[in-house]
Amino acid sequence: MKTVDFKTKSDMEIVEGVKKDLSAYKYIIDRYETKLFRYIQRILYISKEDAEDILQEVFIKAYRNINGYNSKYSFSSWIYRIAHNEAVSFLKKKKRVVEGSGDIEVFEKISSGEDIEDDFVSELKHKEVRDLMSKLDPKYREVLVLRYFEDMEYNEISDILHTSVGNVSSLINRGKKQFKILVERYGKNI
Question: What is the pTM of this model?
Answer without folding.
Answer: 0.69
